[in-house]
Amino acid sequence: PDMTLEQNGRIQVEYIVSSGRSGSTLVGSVLGLADDHVFVGELRLVWQEGLMQNTPCGCGKPFLECPFWRKVFQEAFGGFEEARKIAPKAVLGEIGRLSVKMKELGKVLTFPEPGSEVPDELRSLSALYAAIARVSGARIIVDSSKSIRYAAMLNATPGLNLRVTNLVRNPGGILMSRSRQSKQRDGSEKTWKA
Fold this sequence. Notes:
The chain is of the alpha/beta class.
């Protein structure tokens, strides 16, 4: 039997909702240590920051050179080049930002009626999470994307079973963390986004 799927055939996603600098990367990393879990960081950013900008993966390599993501995108879309063709049409990377047009947001947050056409964005998400489950062999995907809007979109995505964890950090800790420049795993400085 396929251990990446629960008995009803849906992929399990442990989703962390929080504000920036809340410690979600630490919590996700700890959860990812369990034998049946895989931590994928803020997956909503994979389209823009990973696929288009080639920022470093958690393994330290540039995204496009990471063997894990290369296998995932090959499995899901036929490779990075094919995925790039759909990425500009998708609102997936921007869904957590306040600037997303409500029309676009409504398009993907509407729960599809049985037998109705599934929006392309949700089809892409379904393919991506399914490929992560197959390539990693994990039973649970841990996603620390933080955005409640993105969580709602995942909840509407066919084939996913979402469990949300609301992570709250002491405001003083967040302020102290924001006063320091964070670093990528390769040692370069991260650019902070509001």
